[in-house]
Design goal:
mainly alpha; 4 helices
Length: 100
């Protein structure tokens, strides 16, 4: 059985890269990709703990989280398309003008 610590370190590294991407990016697509990295880090934790405890509950949660992530990406990309059509740009600064 593979030890749990390297997997958790990988997950923490992916989550940290995702947080850095969300904080530092101004491009909406980059922010969405960074959120995807964070969600994949969470899924790695679910599967790792599921494997460690010899239970399939974590894998079920991972599949559910993947489904939620896909729905989030669909809504996010729809907003990006709306932003691009109205502003001809996908930077976060342009999204502030959509408040109304």
């Amino acid at each position: 059985m593979m030890p749990l610590q390297p997997v958790l370190l990988l997950s923490a590294a992916l989550f940290s890269v995702g947080i850095y991407g969300v904080i530092s990016r101004r491009n909406v697509i980059g922010i969405l990709l960074s959120v995807e990295l964070m969600m994949n880090a969470v899924n790695i934790n679910f599967v790792a703990f599921s494997h460690y405890h010899q239970s399939s509950v974590g894998q079920v949660f991972a599949v559910f989280a993947i489904a939620l992530t896909v729905a989030e990406v669909v809504v996010g990309l729809a907003l990006v398309i709306l932003l691009y059509r109205s502003q001809k740009d996908v930077l976060v600064d342009g999204a502030r003008a959509l408040k109304g």
